[in-house]
TrEMBL record:
Keyword hit for Cell cycle: no
InterPro entries with a match to the protein in the record: Dihydroneopterin_aldolase (IPR006156), FolB_dom (IPR006157), GTP-CH-I_C/QueF (IPR043133)
Matches recorded under PANTHER family: DIHYDRONEOPTERIN ALDOLASE 1-RELATED (PTHR42844)
Annotated Dihydroneopterin aldolase/epimerase domain residues: 30-140
Keywords: Folate biosynthesis, Lyase, Plasmid
Protein's pathway: Cofactor biosynthesis; tetrahydrofolate biosynthesis; 2-amino-4-hydroxy-6-hydroxymethyl-7,8-dihydropteridine diphosphate from 7,8-dihydroneopterin triphosphate: step 3/4
Protein name in UniProt: dihydroneopterin aldolase
Family: Belongs to the DHNA family.
Record's catalysed reaction(s): 7,8-dihydroneopterin = 6-hydroxymethyl-7,8-dihydropterin + glycolaldehyde
Lineage: Bacteria, Pseudomonadati, Pseudomonadota, Alphaproteobacteria, Rhodospirillales
Amino acid sequence: MPDDSQSGYSTIMNVLRPPPARAVTRRYDLVLRDYVGDFHIGVWDHEKTRTQRVRVSLTVTVEVPNRPFVDDLDAVVSYEYLIQGVEAFTRSPHIQLLEVLAEKLLALCLSPPQAVFARVQVEKLEIVPQAAGVGVVLTGARDHSQ
Protein backbone atom coordinates (compact mmCIF):
# COMPACT_ATOMS: atom_id res chain seq x y z
CA MET A 1 0.00 0.00 0.00
CA PRO A 2 1.42 3.42 -0.89
CA ASP A 3 2.35 6.04 1.69
CA ASP A 4 -0.84 7.95 2.75
CA SER A 5 0.83 11.33 2.46
CA GLN A 6 1.76 10.74 -1.16
CA SER A 7 -1.29 9.01 -2.58
CA GLY A 8 -4.19 10.97 -1.17
CA TYR A 9 -5.55 7.67 0.17
CA SER A 10 -6.36 9.15 3.59
CA THR A 11 -8.28 12.04 1.98
CA ILE A 12 -10.39 9.63 -0.05
CA MET A 13 -11.08 7.49 3.01
CA ASN A 14 -12.21 10.55 4.98
CA VAL A 15 -14.70 11.40 2.25
CA LEU A 16 -16.07 7.86 2.27
CA ARG A 17 -16.30 7.67 6.06
CA PRO A 18 -19.83 8.36 7.35
CA PRO A 19 -20.28 11.67 9.14
CA PRO A 20 -20.23 11.61 12.94
CA ALA A 21 -23.57 10.73 14.51
CA ARG A 22 -25.73 13.73 15.38
CA ALA A 23 -28.51 13.83 17.89
CA VAL A 24 -31.77 13.14 16.09
CA THR A 25 -34.52 15.61 16.89
CA ARG A 26 -38.05 16.29 15.82
CA ARG A 27 -40.23 19.37 15.97
CA TYR A 28 -43.79 20.14 16.89
CA ASP A 29 -45.83 23.33 17.04
CA LEU A 30 -47.53 24.88 20.04
CA VAL A 31 -50.53 26.95 18.98
CA LEU A 32 -52.58 29.65 20.66
CA ARG A 33 -55.07 30.75 18.03
CA ASP A 34 -57.50 33.66 18.06
CA TYR A 35 -57.08 34.72 21.69
CA VAL A 36 -59.16 37.92 22.05
CA GLY A 37 -58.40 40.29 24.89
CA ASP A 38 -58.63 43.93 25.89
CA PHE A 39 -55.23 45.62 25.50
CA HIS A 40 -53.95 49.09 26.37
CA ILE A 41 -52.74 49.96 22.88
CA GLY A 42 -52.82 52.75 20.31
CA VAL A 43 -51.09 55.96 19.25
CA TRP A 44 -54.07 58.34 19.15
CA ASP A 45 -55.31 60.24 22.20
CA HIS A 46 -58.73 58.54 22.11
CA GLU A 47 -56.96 55.15 22.17
CA LYS A 48 -54.97 56.03 25.28
CA THR A 49 -58.04 56.42 27.49
CA ARG A 50 -59.52 52.96 26.93
CA THR A 51 -58.63 49.40 26.01
CA GLN A 52 -59.07 47.89 22.57
CA ARG A 53 -60.01 44.38 21.52
CA VAL A 54 -56.99 42.64 20.00
CA ARG A 55 -56.80 39.15 18.55
CA VAL A 56 -53.53 37.28 19.15
CA SER A 57 -52.45 34.10 17.37
CA LEU A 58 -49.14 32.45 18.23
CA THR A 59 -47.33 29.45 16.76
CA VAL A 60 -44.13 28.22 18.38
CA THR A 61 -42.00 25.48 16.86
CA VAL A 62 -40.35 23.39 19.57
CA GLU A 63 -37.43 21.04 19.00
CA VAL A 64 -37.29 17.88 21.11
CA PRO A 65 -35.33 14.61 21.14
CA ASN A 66 -36.72 12.03 18.74
CA ARG A 67 -38.26 9.65 21.25
CA PRO A 68 -41.81 8.87 22.32
CA PHE A 69 -43.57 11.44 24.45
CA VAL A 70 -43.95 10.66 28.13
CA ASP A 71 -47.51 11.24 29.31
CA ASP A 72 -46.41 13.85 31.83
CA LEU A 73 -46.88 17.62 31.62
CA ASP A 74 -43.39 18.22 33.02
CA ALA A 75 -41.89 16.31 30.07
CA VAL A 76 -43.13 18.74 27.38
CA VAL A 77 -43.18 22.45 26.65
CA SER A 78 -46.73 23.38 27.63
CA TYR A 79 -48.73 26.05 25.82
CA GLU A 80 -49.70 27.36 29.27
CA TYR A 81 -46.78 29.84 29.21
CA LEU A 82 -48.28 31.38 26.07
CA ILE A 83 -51.70 31.83 27.67
CA GLN A 84 -50.26 33.32 30.86
CA GLY A 85 -47.95 35.59 28.90
CA VAL A 86 -50.69 36.99 26.67
CA GLU A 87 -52.93 37.53 29.69
CA ALA A 88 -50.10 39.43 31.39
CA PHE A 89 -49.85 41.74 28.38
CA THR A 90 -53.55 42.62 28.74
CA ARG A 91 -52.61 44.09 32.15
CA SER A 92 -49.37 45.76 31.02
CA PRO A 93 -48.85 49.52 30.65
CA HIS A 94 -49.96 51.24 27.45
CA ILE A 95 -48.16 50.25 24.25
CA GLN A 96 -48.52 52.50 21.22
CA LEU A 97 -47.75 50.16 18.31
CA LEU A 98 -48.92 46.67 17.40
CA GLU A 99 -45.39 46.04 16.13
CA VAL A 100 -44.03 46.57 19.65
CA LEU A 101 -46.64 44.24 21.15
CA ALA A 102 -45.81 41.63 18.48
CA GLU A 103 -42.10 41.95 19.24
CA LYS A 104 -42.71 41.43 22.97
CA LEU A 105 -44.89 38.42 22.22
CA LEU A 106 -42.20 37.01 19.93
CA ALA A 107 -39.69 37.23 22.78
CA LEU A 108 -42.20 35.41 25.00
CA CYS A 109 -42.66 32.69 22.37
CA LEU A 110 -38.92 32.09 22.03
CA SER A 111 -38.22 32.13 25.77
CA PRO A 112 -38.10 28.34 26.34
CA PRO A 113 -34.75 26.94 25.22
CA GLN A 114 -36.55 24.31 23.10
CA ALA A 115 -38.35 26.99 21.04
CA VAL A 116 -36.63 27.43 17.67
CA PHE A 117 -39.14 29.44 15.60
CA ALA A 118 -42.24 31.52 16.25
CA ARG A 119 -44.96 33.34 14.35
CA VAL A 120 -46.97 36.10 16.02
CA GLN A 121 -50.09 37.70 14.56
CA VAL A 122 -51.82 40.60 16.35
CA GLU A 123 -54.89 42.42 15.05
CA LYS A 124 -57.04 45.28 16.29
CA LEU A 125 -60.64 44.21 15.77
CA GLU A 126 -62.57 47.49 15.87
CA ILE A 127 -60.58 49.83 13.60
CA VAL A 128 -62.03 49.09 10.15
CA PRO A 129 -65.71 48.08 10.20
CA GLN A 130 -65.39 46.40 6.79
CA ALA A 131 -62.56 44.11 8.00
CA ALA A 132 -62.33 41.38 10.60
CA GLY A 133 -59.10 42.96 11.80
CA VAL A 134 -56.02 44.98 10.93
CA GLY A 135 -52.59 44.21 12.26
CA VAL A 136 -49.15 42.75 11.83
CA VAL A 137 -47.45 39.37 11.54
CA LEU A 138 -43.94 38.93 12.91
CA THR A 139 -41.74 35.84 12.70
CA GLY A 140 -38.44 35.01 14.31
CA ALA A 141 -36.03 32.20 15.02
CA ARG A 142 -33.69 31.39 17.87
CA ASP A 143 -30.17 32.67 17.36
CA HIS A 144 -28.12 29.44 17.22
CA SER A 145 -24.98 31.24 18.42
CA GLN A 146 -26.41 31.46 21.95
